[in-house]
Amino acid sequence: MQILLNTDNNVQLDGELLQRVEADIVSGLSRFSDQITRVEIHVSDQNADKVGGGDKRCMLEARPAGQQPVAVTHNADSVDEACAGALDKLEALLDTTYGRSHQRKGGQSIRHLPVSEELI
Q: What is the pTM of this model?
């Protein structure tokens, strides 16, 4: 899974925050790593030109193999909180999408189980 980070001109990320965000994405989406080819992180400051503006926005875009990309956004006071909120939303979205695609109505038949001598 490839991770790409994009920021606007108003957001400055230090190396520690960047590594923490990437580590959170890798650990949070590890169960989907065989289905997702790339995750793009877009971080921006929505109110950079206003005094006291602290509205950070994180958009996560996941690109599943062979399917259309899915994206979620989250706004918060800090970049860390915005990325954590977006990651929670993306995990829920992927869990819903892939959880449903692997579940079928009904369960496995019991006919494949061996017959016990005690029951006869």
A: 0.76
